[in-house]
């Protein structure tokens, strides 16, 4: 809430710098594919794509307070919608995007209705079993989905006029979709619906008393969220050009949730950080230990959660808080244990993430305020 | 709010880019790709010099399929062993292993890393059908050889869209034909119950088997599938028992193989002839079940099982165990996957030796014109052959029956090409 | 008819396996209010400890209590080292820490013991009962029996001891519990230790049937979740009933409903759970949450 009030009292000087920052960021984002090697551009493309899925999950979990462990299934539904359309009906790539989005929106709507009855853990586990059920179902529908061998489809090809390489073109298309998706997520949250959602998360009963139509908003949150995951899945098909049931096991769903929490729940840019984490950290883990990358990856997840319990997005605020020696906030204080300080793995990651950006300017009060929007409030357990 | 959001967006974008810069490479390095001169003019020599050859491999070192990751240790041990003896034709092998966690998108990323950043000569082995299917379009477009993929799907050798990709192990259809032939000879009226893994591996083998027995007296009377994520196959085994079939074809991976063998042994009222497929036929799978419970089980194989005492004195097996002891001390030499890695690496050695030009094209052509090539780790009588219209190096297997504490080979090597004609989809 | 009963027995067998792990899940949830994704992997790790002890020559009946003790201490240490530092953080953070733990323990076991299937000693005799054509292995009966005993003990612990009361207070509201003089840290350590012990029992029970390897409990975990959800995440009786129900339902539909078949039988528990939860959102045996606005 405090951030909202802060933004009301804006003045012109404080507008200038963010505008510049956005321009620089945009320039960097547009320039990247001309600088990096093709496979690194591909990695960036994957980061953006996962960020779309994560921001969808963020709408539901971060802002709506409903936990879903089944978003891998919506991701798969989007991916398969695109793949089947390309494979069987030979539609263009662009036609698959609205179809995947609409299809997953409806699927989410359908799921949102029973989800109304379920809370917390129960919802999480029911959605998880949906994610477990989907791969065998896809295998069964062999005539359409290609069964367990999956479907190989054409990747997105650059039009001749662009003069771009395949990976560059894919990057730009995905970048555009991601930008639209992130903007949409941000605007959704600022809309009436978004505020209703936040109210529901913070105190459901109070929100209802205030006249928020609970069931409508919760169901819609599920639908929007599924739509984002579906769009990400559709992009996945464009970029990878191959779908198979075993690519979308329940591990994907758990990875998505882990990525979101690591990135920062309820923060608008947490999904980007989380996507980068799930994309890059497994490779880093392998560089650290070839014998058992999983050992390192598991440790890194735990370490990041120690250092940044509210996710990487909350880290700058926490660090600044500590630097400014403000009276420590309860959550910040409690986890500063020896383990947290001696965590080696996450340090470079963090420095790389926040080093050169402007976020570190310690004099800026707005940033200090920027405790992650949605660090879910500590409500009483049910 | 907007301000902080903008700042954060910028920070996030920069962060993502910076993480990517870690390697510091830039676009345009493709210009470094090199070509050969002389008789091999114009062919690609990326990743190979007179002194070195760089190979990449993609294995699941993490995740649910990490049991297969150890294949890379067998491969690496072989190359270290060869390097110590002077390398392959004077070239030292550098073998880069990457982990895809059995996830196709990760496999694509790692394949691109190997080709574009590591500049490997060839992507030697991708493991698993999904990962291989995800990367073969890319590798063929890039004209990078993808020899001897670690999956037996028949897709790798059928069709001519992917000349740069080739399998190695007997494909699942060929294996199914071996069992079909055996049953047609030994039990012409057999009723067969099939337990299979619900993925390309199980379906390919089951489909091949049904095709191969079509028109004969051998009938498939019951089939049950399981998912890799299932905890156990006991329910499926109980269903199959109802069929009262006299043969059980067990198409499983190691853990489920042990479970199925144990369930079969426990059920004293149903005693079918148990045929276990090659993947689950290692002594390491049978031993936990108890040797007394697996007497008379039939399987087929093509390479020497390191856990089998009959090969203890075999020179190649000795070399393998010594090398593994020296270069991969933490790997279990009795694990058949390590031996598989050794066998496939020495097969690649032979193919590299046979290259007419030391180029990617040279390797592509060499693996497609193998003539009865003998490999030490393969069973006597099993050789690699490929040629025009035949892109399956190994199509010969030998039947074996478990007796006492070991497998005993019986019958002649079964060349499935001769028996049934070339593998076709 | 015999066939049908035989399938029911098979279902009970797998159901008991799910129930054994579900008990540990319920236990940790009662203590801490979270769902522990690493519970199955911890059970697997305990089983490897037992295997190692037996392999090094210790008799089974000595190795078993030793393993349970090691698991109890290990569980407590785990709480102190891994969970305590994120105690005050949002609940999901703790859940993701257990996901990290899952990945870590799974890979660690693979690193130490490799992925080769291990033979684990069977405490129950071979063979089984033959009730007019329906065969029930002693091992199946044994698992069901042990699960029932563990369930009974947990029920007593929850309902008839002061620790049960304390633990409920801690799970409900750690801050208030602390204020009323409960040493929350110790209670939580005890809870983790106990859950690890129950998990170890589960691992040791199922290892002879499923065969020991690092991914042994991965598949069981999903079904144990289903069992616990169906039974209501609070109740040991619910976990066991849920487990047996899920086991029997999926086995029967897998065997007799051809449209579903063995490949889609995993969907059966999903449908049942959804149906039950729509009527009773707190699960079959769970208590409805009463909310203060």
UniProtKB/TrEMBL annotation, chain A:
Protein name, as recorded: Branched-chain amino acid ABC transporter permease
Annotated source species: Streptomyces populi
Transmembrane annotation, as ranges: 20-36, 42-60, 67-86, 92-113, 120-138, 169-189, 220-244, 250-280, 292-315
Molecular function, one GO term: branched-chain amino acid transmembrane transporter activity
GO CC terms of this entry: plasma membrane
Keyword Cell membrane attributed: yes
Membrane listed as a keyword: yes
A matching Pfam family: BPD_transp_2
Annotated spans, Disordered: 326-382
UniProtKB keywords: Cell membrane, Membrane, Transmembrane, Transmembrane helix
First-listed, main subcellular location of the protein, grouped into a coarse class: membrane
Location(s), subcellular: Cell membrane
Membrane topology classification: Multi-pass membrane protein
Biased composition (Low complexity): 340-349, 362-382
TrEMBL record, chain B:
Superkingdom, natural source: Bacteria
Leucine-binding protein domain residues: 52-403
Ribonucleoprotein as UniProt keyword: no
Signal peptide boundaries: 1-24
Keyword terms of this UniProt record: Signal
Family: Belongs to the leucine-binding protein family.
Gene3D superfamilies recorded: 3.40.50.2300
Keyword Cell membrane (UniProt): no
Name this polypeptide is given: Branched-chain amino acid ABC transporter substrate-binding protein
Pfam family, one: Peripla_BP_6
TrEMBL record, chain C:
GO cellular component assignments: plasma membrane
Subcellular location field: Cell membrane
Keyword list, A-Z: Amino-acid transport, Cell membrane, Membrane, Transmembrane, Transmembrane helix, Transport
Topology relative to the membrane: Multi-pass membrane protein
Primary localisation category: membrane
Chain ranges passing through the membrane: 12-28, 60-82, 94-116, 136-158, 187-210, 266-285
Domain of life, per lineage: Bacteria
Keyword Transmembrane helix among UniProt keywords: yes
Molecular functions (GO terms): transmembrane transporter activity
Keyword hit for Signal: no
GO BP of this protein: amino acid transport
InterPro entries named among the record's database cross-references: ABC_transp_permease, BCAA_transport_permease
Family in the record: Belongs to the binding-protein-dependent transport system permease family. LivHM subfamily.
This protein's name: Branched-chain amino acid ABC transporter permease
Organism: Streptomyces populi
Lineage: Bacteria, Bacillati, Actinomycetota, Actinomycetes, Kitasatosporales
């Amino acid at each position: 809430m405090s951030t909202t009030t802060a933004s009301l009292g804006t003045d012109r000087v404080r507008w200038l710098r963010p505008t510049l920052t956005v321009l620089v960021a945009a320039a960097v984002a547009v320039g990247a594919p001309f600088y990096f090697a093709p496979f690194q551009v591909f990695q960036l493309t994957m980061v953006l794509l996962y960020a779309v899925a994560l921001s969808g999950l963020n709408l539901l979990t971060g802002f709506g307070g409903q936990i879903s462990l089944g978003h891998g299934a919506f991701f798969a539904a989007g991916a398969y919608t695109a793949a089947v359309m390309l494979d069987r009906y030979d539609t263009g790539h662009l036609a698959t995007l609205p179809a995947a989005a609409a299809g997953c929106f409806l699927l989410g709507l359908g799921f949102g209705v029973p989800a109304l009855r379920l809370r917390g853990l129960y919802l999480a586990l029911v959605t998880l079993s949906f994610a477990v059920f989907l791969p065998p179902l896809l295998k069964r529908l062999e005539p359409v989905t290609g069964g367990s061998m999956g479907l190989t489809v054409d990747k997105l090809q650059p039009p001749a006029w662009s003069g771009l390489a395949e990976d560059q073109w894919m990057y730009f298309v995905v970048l555009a979709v991601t930008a639209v998706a992130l903007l949409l997520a941000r605007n959704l949250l600022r809309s009436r619906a978004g505020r209703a959602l936040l109210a529901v998360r913070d105190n459901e009963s109070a929100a209802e008393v205030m006249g928020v139509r609970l069931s409508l908003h919760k169901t819609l949150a599920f639908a929007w969220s599924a739509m984002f995951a579906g769009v990400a899945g559709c992009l996945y098909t464009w970029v990878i050009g191959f779908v198979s049931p075993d690519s979308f096991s329940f591990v994907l769903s758990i990875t998505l949730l882990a990525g979101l929490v690591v990135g920062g729940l309820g923060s608008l840019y947490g999904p980007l950080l989380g996507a980068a984490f799930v994309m890059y950290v497994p490779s880093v883990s392998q560089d650290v230990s070839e014998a058992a990358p999983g050992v390192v990856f598991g440790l890194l997840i735990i370490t990041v959660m120690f250092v940044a319990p509210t996710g990487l997005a909350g880290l700058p605020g926490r660090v600044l808080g500590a630097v400014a020696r403000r009276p420590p906030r309860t959550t910040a204080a409690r986890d500063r244990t020896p383990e947290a300080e001696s965590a080696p793995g996450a340090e470079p990651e963090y420095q790389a993430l926040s080093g050169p950006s402007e976020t570190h300017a310690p004099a800026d009060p707005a940033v200090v305020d920027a405790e992650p929007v949605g660090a879910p409030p500590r409500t009483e357990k049910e | 709010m907007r301000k902080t959001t903008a700042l954060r967006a910028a920070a996030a974008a920069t962060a993502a880019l910076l993480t990517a810069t870690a390697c510091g490479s830039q676009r345009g390095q493709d210009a470094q790709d090199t070509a050969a001169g002389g008789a091999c003019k114009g062919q690609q020599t990326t990743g190979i010099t007179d002194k070195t050859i760089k190979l990449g491999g993609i294995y699941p070192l993490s995740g649910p399929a990490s049991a297969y990751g150890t294949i890379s240790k067998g491969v690496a041990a072989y190359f270290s062993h060869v390097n110590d003896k002077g390398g392959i034709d004077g070239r030292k092998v550098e073998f880069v292993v990457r982990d895809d966690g059995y996830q196709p998108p990760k496999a694509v990323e790692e394949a691109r890393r190997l080709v574009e950043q590591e500049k490997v000569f060839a992507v030697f082995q991708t493991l698993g059908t999904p990962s291989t299917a995800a990367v073969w379009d890319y590798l063929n477009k890039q004209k990078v050889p993808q020899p001897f993929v670690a999956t037996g799907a028949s897709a790798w050798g059928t069709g001519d869209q992917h000349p740069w990709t080739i399998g190695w192990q007997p494909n699942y259809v060929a294996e199914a034909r071996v069992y079909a032939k055996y049953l047609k000879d030994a039990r012409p009226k057999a009723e067969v119950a099939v337990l299979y893994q619900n993925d390309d591996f199980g379906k390919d083998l089951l489909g091949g088997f049904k095709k191969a027995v079509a028109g004969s007296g051998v009938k498939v009377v019951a089939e049950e599938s399981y998912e890799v994520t299932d905890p156990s196959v006991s329910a499926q085994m109980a269903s199959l028992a109802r069929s009262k079939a006299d043969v059980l074809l067990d198409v499983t991976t190691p853990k489920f193989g042990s479970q199925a063998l144990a369930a079969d042994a426990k059920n004293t009222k149903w005693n079918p002839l148990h045929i276990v497929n090659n993947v689950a036929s290692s002594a390491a799978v049978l031993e936990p079940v108890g040797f007394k419970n697996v007497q008379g089980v039939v399987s087929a194989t093509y390479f020497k099982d390191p856990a089998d005492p009959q090969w203890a004195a075999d020179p190649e097996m000795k070399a393998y165990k010594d090398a593994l002891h020296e270069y991969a001390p933490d790997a279990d030499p009795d694990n058949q996957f390590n031996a598989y890695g050794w066998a496939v690496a020495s097969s690649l050695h032979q193919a590299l030796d046979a290259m007419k030009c030391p180029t990617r094209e040279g390797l592509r052509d060499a693996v497609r014109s193998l003539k009865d090539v003998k490999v030490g780790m393969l069973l006597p009588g099993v050789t690699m052959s490929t040629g025009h219209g035949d892109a399956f190096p190994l199509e010969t297997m030998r039947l074996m029956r478990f007796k006492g504490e070991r497998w005993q080979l019986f019958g002649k090597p079964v060349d499935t090409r001769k028996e049934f004609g070339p593998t076709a989809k | 008819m015999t066939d049908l009963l035989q399938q029911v027995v098979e279902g009970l067998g797998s159901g008991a396996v799910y129930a054994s792990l579900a008990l540990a899940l319920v236990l940790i949830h009662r203590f801490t209010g979270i769902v522990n994704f690493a519970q199955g992997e911890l059970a697997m790790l305990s089983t490897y400890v037992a295997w190692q002890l037996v392999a090094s020559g210790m008799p089974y009946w000595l190795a078993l209590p030793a393993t349970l003790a090691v698991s109890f201490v290990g569980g407590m240490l785990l709480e102190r080292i891994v969970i305590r530092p994120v105690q005050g953080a949002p609940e999901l953070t703790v859940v993701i820490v257990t996901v990290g733990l899952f990945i870590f323990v799974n890979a660690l076991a693979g690193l130490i013991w490799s992925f080769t299937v291990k033979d684990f000693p069977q405490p129950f005799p071979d063979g089984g009962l033959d009730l007019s054509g329906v065969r029930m292995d002693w091992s199946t009966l044994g698992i069901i029996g042990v699960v029932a005993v563990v369930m009974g003990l947990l029920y007593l612990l929850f309902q008839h001891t002061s620790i049960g009361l304390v633990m409920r207070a801690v799970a409900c509201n750690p801050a208030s519990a602390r204020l009323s003089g409960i040493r929350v840290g110790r209670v939580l350590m005890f809870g983790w230790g106990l859950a690890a012990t129950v998990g170890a029992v589960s691992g040791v029970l199922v290892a002879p049937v499923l065969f020991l390897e690092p991914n042994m409990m991965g598949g069981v975990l999903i079904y144990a979740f289903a069992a616990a959800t169906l039974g209501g995440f609070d109740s040991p009786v619910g976990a066991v009933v849920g487990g047996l129900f899920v086991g029997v339902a999926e086995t029967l539909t897998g065997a007799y409903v051809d449209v579903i078949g063995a490949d889609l039988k995993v969907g059966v528990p999903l449908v049942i759970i959804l149906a039950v939860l729509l009527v009773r959102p707190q699960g079959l045996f769970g208590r409805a949450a009463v909310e203060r606005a």
